[in-house]
Every structure is written in structure tokens, then in C-alpha cells.
């Protein structure tokens, strides 16, 4: 239980909520309390706090703790603030002090719950595997710039300078989630690489995105290789389109055909 000693300038800090409660002044039976909170946390007088405002507070609050638990704690705090306000107005100083102690204890419990759930969310994020990509592009600058950009978005990116290097990489390493394959390369181009991939039992189901500055129809042949690509991206590339496509858990739609 948190204990308030009624000493002026005494502070109680709730680190996970970024809230500090401070006794500003103690004079006889009167106690002046200050609450310091982040800008996004609303501090509302009990007599002016409506059910709609409680709903808005819940909507804005980070979903670190369950909605049911959050609502219960908010309701407890709201009732306590109303009771404390009424007790102060009625001159019931000792009773108001007891109520304030209960409120501080409830805030402490909420602070602990937020901290525990924040740690759980952090552990889950750390345990999540980044989506992996293989960028196949013969131009050194294009390849490294695109790979660097995708890494900035949190993707695990490998690179290959042409189709042959890509096939060697895929044979020796764990398969990526996606392959971004340039079509026009001097040594083993995109369509030839795709045909090898689609005929391979291990690599046949890889999601392969074509990257080209030409009309995709130029690369269609008797084997209808064009339809084997999971998506097409035209140069100059729009990074946002690629990021959106590789972030989806479902099969991406054909883009920029």
C-alpha cells in the first residue's frame, strides 16, 4: 500500500504511466495536490467527467492492457475521485485522505499492469522474425540502395548480382519470403531464373516479384512466364508499393502492370 505522509513537496511517481502526484501545500486540514502527466493524458475534474469523456480516454489510451481490465480500473479511479471531491467539499478531511490513499494504490496497480504488459509486447516483438527478401539486380547502385531502403523498413535483405548468383544463394541458404527479380540482366536474366525456380521442388512456391523498366509483355514467351510472377513493379520504383506488397500476409495483387 502507498502511504501519504502529508509532508509538503512529497512526490509519488508512476513511471509506466509517466504520472507524478505531488503534495504542493499542507495547511491545517487542507492539502493541495498537483498532478503532472504527459500532454496526451487528460486531467479532468470529477464533476466535469462524463461517460463520453471516459470513452474518449479509453480510445486514446495505448492498448497495453486489456479493455475490460482498463475499464474496471478507470471506473474505480472515477468513483474515487468523485468521492474524494465530495468529502473535501463536506469538510471530511480525514475521510478524503483515506480515499486519496486508495486512489494512489489503484494508480500504482494500473502502473504495474501497464509496465508488465509493455514488457510482454516488447518480448513478442523481439521474438518476431523479420520478413526476408532476396534482391536480384545487376546494377550495383540500384541493388545496394534498394536493399538499404528495405532494411530501414525492418526487412531482412540479402542481395545477388544476377540470376546465377541468386540461384546459388538460394541453393545454399534458407529460402526468403520474397524475391525481387530484375528482368534485364546480362548473365542469366529474370525470365530464365524464374523458369528454374518454378521447376525446382524446393523453390517452386517462392513468391517472385518482377522488377523491370520495360513493358512486361516483352518478357512473355511460349511458356507464359509472365503469369508465373506474383507481381510486377515498373522502374522507376515506388518504394511504398514494394513495402506494402512484402508486408502483406496474403498473396499480393499484380502491381504496375
TrEMBL record:
Residues 132-250 form the Response regulatory domain. Homodimer; the beta-strands of each monomer intercalate to form a hydrophobic core, while the alpha-helices form wings that extend away from the core. This is Translational regulator CsrA. Keywords: Bacterial flagellum biogenesis, Cytoplasm, Kinase, Phosphoprotein, Repressor, RNA-binding, Transferase, Translation regulation, Two-component regulatory system. The gene is csrA. A translational regulator that binds mRNA to regulate translation initiation and/or mRNA stability. Usually binds in the 5'-UTR at or near the Shine-Dalgarno sequence preventing ribosome-binding, thus repressing translation. Its main target seems to be the major flagellin gene, while its function is anatagonized by FliW. Pfam families: CsrA, Response_reg. PANTHER family: PROTEIN PILG (PTHR44591:SF14), STRESS RESPONSE REGULATOR PROTEIN 1 (PTHR44591).
Amino acid at each position: 500500500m502507498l502511504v501519504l505522509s502529508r509532508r509538503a513537496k512529497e512526490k509519488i511517481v508512476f513511471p509506466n504511466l509517466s504520472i507524478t502526484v505531488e503534495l504542493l501545500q499542507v495547511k491545517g486540514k487542507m492539502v493541495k495536490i498537483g498532478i503532472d502527466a504527459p500532454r496526451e493524458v487528460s486531467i479532468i475534474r470529477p464533476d466535469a467527467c462524463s461517460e463520453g469523456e471516459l470513452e474518449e480516454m479509453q480510445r486514446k489510451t495505448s492498448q497495453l492492457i486489456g479493455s475490460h481490465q482498463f475499464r474496471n480500473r478507470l471506473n474505480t479511479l472515477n468513483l474515487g475521485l468523485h468521492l474524494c471531491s465530495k468529502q473535501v467539499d463536506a469538510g471530511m478531511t480525514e475521510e478524503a485522505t483515506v480515499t486519496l490513499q486508495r486512489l494512489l494504490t489503484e494508480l500504482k496497480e494500473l502502473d504495474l499492469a501497464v509496465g508488465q504488459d509493455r514488457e510482454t509486447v516488447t518480448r513478442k516483438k523481439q521474438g518476431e522474425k523479420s520478413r526476408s527478401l532476396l534482391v536480384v539486380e545487376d546494377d550495383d547502385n540500384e541493388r545496394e540502395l534498394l536493399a538499404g531502403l528495405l532494411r530501414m523498413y525492418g526487412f531482412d535483405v540479402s542481395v545477388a548480382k544476377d540470376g546465377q548468383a541468386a540461384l546459388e544463394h538460394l541453393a545454399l541458404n534458407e529460402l526468403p519470403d520474397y524475391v525481387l527479380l530484375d528482368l534485364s540482366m546480362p548473365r542469366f536474366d529474370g525470365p530464365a531464373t524464374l523458369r528454374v525456380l518454378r521447376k525446382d521442388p524446393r523453390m517452386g512456391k517462392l513468391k517472385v516479384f518482377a522488377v523491370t523498366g520495360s513493358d512486361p509483355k516483352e518478357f512473355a514467351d511460349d511458356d507464359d512466364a509472365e503469369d508465373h510472377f506474383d507481381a510486377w513493379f515498373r522502374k522507376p520504383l515506388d518504394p511504398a508499393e514494394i513495402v506494402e506488397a512484402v508486408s502483406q500476409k496474403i498473396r499480393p495483387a499484380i502491381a504496375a502492370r
